[in-house]
Structure to design on (162 residues):
């Protein structure tokens, strides 16, 4: 048990607070206990930042290249990790550290940026664009609008007018 928890427990059982003030005292200690618990849980979730080895960086760049090449049917995390010679934990933590996003968060952003450029620069329907990156048109439209605050058709129409 952490020293702060031990001290708090000791204070709870060895208090000399007057009886009428005990509810207030215990409420304060409960808040203190909750605060310590949340700090402890937060520290457990913090990733341990360490430098990535050159081999890990190469593997992570290889994973990114695979995702770019296979964005319409991306491999599952376990398969991607084994293809690049990392375990899933190293892949996910390293990807976030090197590229600033989760594996599939990065992939979704890459897909949406690619489709935006396709809609602007190619004479292709919205449905074809959606299918080319592995989305159904309805799901694509929702994701696109959430990301760019525009409908894919609006971008398509703007590119036709230009």
């Amino acid at each position: 048990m952490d020293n702060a928890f031990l001290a708090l427990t000791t204070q709870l059982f060895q208090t000399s607070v007057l009886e009428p003030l005990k509810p207030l005292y215990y409420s304060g200690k409960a808040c203190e206990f909750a605060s310590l618990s949340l700090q402890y849980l937060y520290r457990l979730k913090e990733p341990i930042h360490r430098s990535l080895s050159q081999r890990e960086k190469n593997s992570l760049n290889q994973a990114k290249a695979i995702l770019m090449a296979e964005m319409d049917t991306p491999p599952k995390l376990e398969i991607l990790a084994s293809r690049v010679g990392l375990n899933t934990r190293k892949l996910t933590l390293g990807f976030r550290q090197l590229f600033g996003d989760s594996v599939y968060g990065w992939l979704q952003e890459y897909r949406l940026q690619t489709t935006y450029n396709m809609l602007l620069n190619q004479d292709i329907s919205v449905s074809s664009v959606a299918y080319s990156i592995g989305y159904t048109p309805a799901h694509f439209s929702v994701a696109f609008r959430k990301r760019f605050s525009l409908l894919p058709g609006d971008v398509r129409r703007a590119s036709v007018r230009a």
